[in-house]
Model the fold of this input.
Amino acid sequence: MPILPQRGQDEEANEYLDRILPELNEILENSVSGGAFVKDGKIFVKVVSPYNAADKDLELGKMLTNSANIVTIDTEKLEDAAVTLAKVANGSISGDKLVTSEAVITQSAQIGDATILTAAIGDAQITNAKIGSLDANKITSGSLAADRLGANSITAGKIAADTITSDKIAANAITSSELASDAVTANKIAANAVTTDKLSANSITSTKLATSSLITQSAQIDDGIITNAKINSLNANKISGGSISASFLSGGTLTIGSGGIQTIVGSFNPENLNAGVILQVLANSVGRGTGTSTATIPSTTFTSTNNTSFNTDAVVVLIANASTFSSNQGTQIATRFMTGSTALALTQTAACSGAGQADVRIHAARVQLNKNQQYFASISFNDNGQGEAGQGTGSAVILEVRRV
Done:
């Protein structure tokens, strides 16, 4: 068995190793059973040293402390799993030493923070499957395509104020549920945009209307929609057409201007006239005839008003005028207010006899009338017992009025 040269008395192990290394390499290459042997997974060499009995079998791992003096050890010289992590120098494993056919790094714990630099990774080498998680702060440029975003993944809290402009909103995308209460102001509503069918019943209150002009054209108001309750006040000058029905006139004073009533078209409805208003006016007179006679005074016959809302009276003025011109003449004139054959008012009689005599009598009375009944004034006359009748006339004025 080859024997290596002896180690000198004062020779350091490194110096001795440098001296015997060529011969050691030759021995190791030829056989591991000659000047070297393997025991318990370790390489030993046989040396002869009279100065140090411990040098008889030196463990190679204790002698080889100067790595610069170690020649290349082939793979077959290494036992399986003999090279541990502690035996690998930092930065000594390059990319071509890694197996490409299978995963080498299988856990994130195998990679220290900020260990793999950008230069150590080829472009486009990290695929989606290699990424377990990624902090958003690592994304510093570029943009995410819309199809990379999950449905409903962007919430309101992720959108900055004033970020979404109108061109980013699809047509008809904003419905009533997307609008906050009181969000739509007048400035946001286009002119002529709000139609009647968009308004619910009683939806427009005073708080929803601006104090400035809102309705500026009559076309904006449909016919017949403004009721009495919607009108607070109205100037009479605004009434420029049509007519006011008498049924809408109530108590109080109707003041007529200084010009008076210029024209009345049609007639007043009696039921809308107050008490004392004259409904009919009749008046006439008639002279005596010859002999003894009774006659109706023309144009005094009328039928009383038939209205269930009120009753009427007749204000009657009767006048009797008798006169004679000679001593043998006599005249008696009587005027009456009649219905059928019944005198309703006090008969007024004037009588005189002899030359140059005269008698005039006037009587006025208010008579209650029945509804829808005929009335008239009459005159009767005679010669007052003188054989020759003098002159005379009978007159009547009749006013039908609403009863007080």
About this structure: Residues 278-402 form a domain with the Jelly Rolls fold (CATH 2.60.120). Residues 64-71 have pLDDT under 50 and may be disordered. The first helix runs from residue 13 to 30. The chain is about 5% helix and 25% strand.
